Amino acid sequence: MIREYQAKDLDAIMTIWLQGNEQAHNFIDPEFFKQNFELVKMLIPMSTIYVQDINGVVVGFIGLTENYISGLYVEKNSRHQGTGAALVEKAKQRHNELMVHVYKQNSDAINFYLSQNFEIVGESINEETNHPEILMRCNVEHKVKIGKCAL
Length: 151
Known about the structure:
By secondary structure, the chain is an alpha+beta fold. A hairpin with a 6-residue loop joins β6 (119-125) and β7. The longest helix is centred in the first third of the chain and has 15 residues, at 10-24. It has 4 helices and 9 strands. It has helices spanning 10-24, 30-43, 83-94, 107-115, and strands spanning 2-4, 48-54, 57-65, 68-74, 97-103, 119-125, 132-139, 145-146, 149-150. The protein has a single domain (2-150), classed as 3-Layer(aba) Sandwich (Aminopeptidase), CATH 3.40.630. Residues 1-141 form the N-acetyltransferase domain. This is GNAT family N-acetyltransferase.
C-alpha cells in the first residue's frame, strides 16, 4: 500500500536512503552520505513523502518538493518488483510534470526513469559532489473522467 509519510517512518526511510545511496552511487565517497545523514533526516518531513508499506514495513519511498523528485529509494530486496514504478505513478497523479536529477554514472536509475516516460532534458555538474548529472522530465497527461468516459 502506498500511503503518506508518518513520523514513525523516519528511521526506516533513513536506513533505505543511506543504503540506497551507498549502493547506487559507489563512485561517491560513502562518507559524503554519512556526513549528510542528519541534514537529510531533518529535511525529510519538510517534503511530500509517500511510502510503500507492506504489512507495516516501509520498503520504499519517494520524496517530492513540488514537482521535483528529491529522492526515490527502494530497499534492496524489494527492487524490480514494481515498487519504484508505483511510487512514481503516485507522484504522477499529483503533478502535470515531474523533474529529477540523476547522476550520469547511475545507468540503472536513468534506464528506470526512461522506462517511466521521462526524457533527458539537460546535463550539469552536481555542485556538492562534482559529478556529472542529467536532468530528466516527464510530462504527465491526466485523463478527465466524466461518468464512464475518459476525455
